[in-house]
Specification:
The structure holds two protein chains of two kinds.
Chain A (H helix, E strand, L loop, with lengths): L2 H16 L3 H6 L1 E13 L4 E9 H10 L9 E6 L3 E4 L4 E12 L5 E16 L2 E11 L13
Chain B lengths: L5 H5 L9 E3 L6 H12 L4 E5 L8 E7 L2 E7 L5 E5 L14 E3 L3 E2 L6 E2 L5 E3 L20 E7 L2 E5 L7 H5 L4 H8 L3 E11 L3 H9 L8 H6 L12 E2 L5 E8 L11 H4 L10 E7 L3 E6 L2 E11 L2 E11 L4 H15 L6 H16 L5 E3 L12 H14 L11
Antiparallel strand pairs in B: 1-19, 2-11, 3-4, 3-6, 4-5, 5-10, 7-8, 8-9, 10-11, 12-18, 13-14, 14-15, 15-16, 16-17, 17-18
Helix pairs in contact in B: 5-9
């Protein structure tokens, strides 16, 4: 097992989403993949779930995207060095992110910050994403986003 | 001729009053100021759901008309609201958006207040002994607060009609859905939009814009005959559809399983869809299994904050809550299918009017109060005109 290969999975998953290579993203995930975006609300004093999908749900979401109205902004995910924690039961990877958006005039601004808690598994000599929980710090996302973070 | 020159472009549309709106109602600072004084300082404003103040001394802080305000459930169970301002030197009493406080202590000089707004303590008061500065006279500024269907409203005016009278019958068709079971807020987010507040509110009243959303094109436009839809307007500028519209969720691939995932809210089937706008800035949308309450708060002529709440059933199972959250998020969450598209529309129109490229907007669709009639928009602007004394199309004073 190589931590570098594990980190590469995280980087590749973000590059795939940045490039709208959704098939490429799903190829990095096992079929039982689960994806959740969680946000703590200081107004409600509790966690909220803003998006929750399994592998099939994400696949459908990606298929429907071309028909949706979206603003033409480029989304870029910048990552911290992923922290890999390996135990007998699982491989946990924690990565802080800052997501930028760049508009058609070339102006970049921060879209959101937060971290990924990824659960990675090792199958047939390859690493795959088993679960991703996104913890968002940013709660005002402007127009929002049709694509998972 | 198919295009229009400058003169033609600037001509007022040959339409009856309230069938078109000048782009300047979205941009003029004088109109914005009048709206603040004549609408937002005198009409009822939704501030939070009662589940956000479920325990004694729970409080919620929010901004409205540039003022920081808090609502608190007092020791007698009654919700009251006050300016979030210490009577002494004006420091804000609460800095967090919510919490629980049996005693309210100003951080600056430790003046104390109770949940009824009375001043209960002034450190070293003897220095004020020869003046009017006494606890009995230093209470907080209270704001009228009333509750309707679990929704807490405030009114900055002490003279306006009471909340029940103001709402009238507008929420009758949502009454069963919002009162038969205790409800609670499971989703809250705020969004700063670069648009006049009315351009946002129009997205909640303009049912013709269904065509913009692929979800609505697939699930809603053909779900029932257009002529069977019934749009309603009420006194004080409220309007929507309380008689259920229908949505065929199976027509959108990602929503196909909705009917199997969680039961409907009282008084609705999973495929029912009701919405009601309460003038000026509140919208309640119930989609079979979940409710959205949104509230737009003007900041400047060109910016506003939208507050979004998702509402579910209090005490429901984790499985039901998860499904209800999912249904809410599918349409209305920041990663949902519809709300991001609505914001794009509001900001796009605002940009046109800001630069005066957009001159008039047309709200003259007439389908006898069915289908995609603009009747709700016309009712809104008729009410707006009553408050401001200005015709929204010609911008002339109304005598």
């Amino acid at each position: 097992m190589s931590n570098e290969e594990i980190r590469n999975i995280i980087l590749l998953s973000c590059n795939s989403l940045d490039d709208h290579d959704f098939e490429g993203f799903l190829n990095l995930c096992v079929k039982g993949f689960k994806y959740t975006i969680k946000v703590f609300s200081p107004e409600l004093l509790k966690d909220m779930v803003w998006l929750e999908h399994d592998y099939e749900g994400l696949k459908v979401l990606f298929e429907e995207l071309p028909d949706h109205l979206q603003r033409n902004e480029k989304i870029s995910r910048q990552l911290s060095y992923p922290l890999v924690e390996t135990s007998a039961k699982k491989i946990k990877v924690t990565t802080n992110f800052c997501v930028y958006k760049t508009d058609l005039d070339g102006k970049s601004s921060i879209f959101c910050i937060g971290n990924y808690i990824d659960n990675v598994c090792y199958i047939n000599n390859k690493y795959f994403l088993k679960e991703r929980v996104v913890h968002l710090e940013t709660r005002d996302l402007g127009i929002g986003l049709h694509v998972p973070i | 001729m198919t295009s229009r020159d400058k003169k033609l472009w600037q001509e007022m549309p040959s339409l009856p009053d309230f069938n078109y709106v000048s782009g300047e109602v979205y941009t003029q600072p004088e109109i914005f100021k009048k709206e603040q004084d004549k609408i937002f300082s005198k009409t009822w404003h939704f501030v939070c759901h009662e589940s956000e103040l479920s325990k004694l001394y729970d409080y919620r802080v929010y901004d409205y008309t540039g003022k920081s305000i808090f609502s608190i459930r007092g020791e007698d169970g009654i919700v009251r609201s006050f300016f979030n301002v210490c009577s002494h030197r004006g420091a804000k009493l609460f800095s967090m958006p919510s919490g629980n406080a049996k005693r309210i202590k100003c951080f600056y000089h430790h003046w104390m207040y109770n949940s009824k707004g009375a001043c209960t303590g002034i450190p070293r008061p003897s220095a004020y002994s020869d003046t009017e500065v006494k606890k009995e006279k230093m209470g907080l500024r209270e704001i009228r607060t009333e509750v309707y269907l679990g929704m807490i409203f405030i009114n900055l005016s002490d003279e306006s009609e009471n909340l029940h009278s103001y709402i009238g019958n507008a929420l009758d068709d949502l009454s069963e859905t919002m009162s038969m079971q205790p409800l609670e807020v499971f989703h809250y987010n705020k969004i700063l939009i670069h648009s006049n507040w009315k351009a946002w509110q129009e997205t909640n009243m303009d049912i013709y814009h269904e065509f913009m959303h692929v979800v609505l094109r697939k699930t809603q436009v053909n779900a029932m005959p257009m002529e069977d839809r019934k749009l309603s307007i009420f006194k004080n500028g409220h309007g929507g559809s309380g008689a259920s519209l229908k949505a065929s969720y199976t027509n959108y691939k990602g929503f196909a399983n909705r009917k199997d995932e969680v039961g409907p809210l009282p008084g609705m089937s999973v495929s029912d869809f009701k919405f009601m706008n309460i003038f000026p800035s509140l919208t309640i949308i119930a989609r079979g299994t979940a409710i959205r309450i949104d509230n737009v708060i003007p900041l400047t002529p060109h910016t506003a904050v939208i507050e979004m709440r998702g509402i579910g059933v209090m005490g429901e199972s984790d499985e039901d809550r998860r499904a209800r959250q999912k249904h809410h998020n599918q349409y209305w969450g920041p990663f949902g299918r519809n709300v991001p598209e609505d914001i794009i529309a509001a900001e796009s129109c605002a940009e046109s009017y800001r630069g005066s490229a957009g001159k008039y907007q047309i709200i003259s669709r007439d389908e006898d109060g069915t289908g995609q009639d603009d009747i709700i928009l016309r009712s809104f602007y008729s009410e707006w005109a009553l408050h401001l004394g200005i015709n929204p199309g010609s911008l002339k004073e109304i005598k």
